[in-house]
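tool=predict chain=A
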Amino acid sequence: MINITPVILCGGSGTRLWPLSRTGFPKQFLCLTGHESLFQQAALRLANLGSPEISVAAPVIVSGEDHRFLASEQLRETGIGLGQALLEPVGRNTAPALTLAALAAIEAGQDPILVVTPADQTVARPAAFTTAMQQAIAEAATGSIVILGIQPDRPETGYGYIKTAVSPAPTLAVERFVEKPDAATAQTYFDEGGYYWNAGMFVLKASVWLKALEQFRPDILQATQQAWDKRSTDAAFIRPGKAEFTAIPSESVDYAVMEHCPGSVFPIKMVPLDAGWNDLGAWDAVWNVLPKDDNGNAHLGDVLTTNSHNTLVHATSRLVSLVGVRDLVVIETPDAVLVADKSRSQDVKHIVNALNASGREEHTLHRKVHRPWGWYDSIDEEGRFKVKRIQVKPKASLSLQMHHHRAEHWIVVKGTAEITNGEKTLLLTENQSTYIPLGEVHRLANPGTIPLEIIEVQSGSYLGEDDIVRFEDHYGRTK
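tool=predict ok
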């Protein structure tokens, strides 16, 4: 029996898919194709790799601290149990992330095969993915490092390439890795054959990765080991030492190890993957994978068009109409609208950079913000007041907290609210309300079995989200 541990890399902010993708809710957690998020699709693909010869463990996810509840909740929705969540205090690229997963895997004295994939890719033909990945797992069981290469269907300048040796075997020997080419070079690769897109998916034993890293980048291994030794554990959440992890050199798996393997003592193989793969790096890639009408338009949400061609529209909260345009991307959210030439989709990141430089919040959070207890939607705001719609999951509660600069009025519109207000605890049902004075310690909880919804009206001299002092919290957010 071959034991495998799926490793899902959930880092990245997806800036080129703004305004739908935000730092606080990046693209891997969005439902861009189908009914599952990209992260959920990745988890389901890996869970389906089991066979009479292959045993699949619960997945390990590597993500940022801010996304831990988002990832664990989405995983729960798929019915897949969480193995471990390795929480990076800062981004250090994929080599340290994979090293954390390998150190976690060998902690119990085992040496499973790690099946490593990013969380932000789509696969149109899951059966072909399963076949290719099972071939890679069988090869990795012999001690090889195996990567997945995408059979190109066009010259492409946006991906790195893998050059393989000519071989009839299901697994091909890797001769070298090639950087993202210019257009002429990409055309040459496409015409010659033997070149595959690098999909960033790796299959190898945990011990093999650690030995290869020790050979080629011992500084990364030593620094990550130090961070791992200083880890703290909270249920399935594992946090490496922050100071130690911050000191790790930032490097990708490819640069740290893979590019050094051809011709070394670490055999590296490639399995071709022809499964309708796409990494959805920008809006033009999203348009490519979505179903289209007879005029090449891909539309999601409330959209009306006339005499328009080859457009992508994603309408979240209102009607979007197009008249006589072509090759446009229009992404509508409650607080931001993007209009772009589809061929310039990569340049959306410049807008995000400008938002960041000016200190605006639209690159960080949506108007509707998800929290481990539910969500809130800031529906109106001006001067000295803010109005929120708040939903709390059944049996969930917010932290015990207080505010220095604002008072709050709560009106229950659905469900039952258990409210701590100073020394008092009360239950409110639909159409009932209460008042939380400035400076009063309070908590909102849902004791019921259906979601609780309230309208919150804040009033005061300062209404920022950082005006909060937490005394008790179920989610580890107290200072």
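The CA atoms of residues 218 and 288 lie 41 Å apart. The mean pLDDT is 93.
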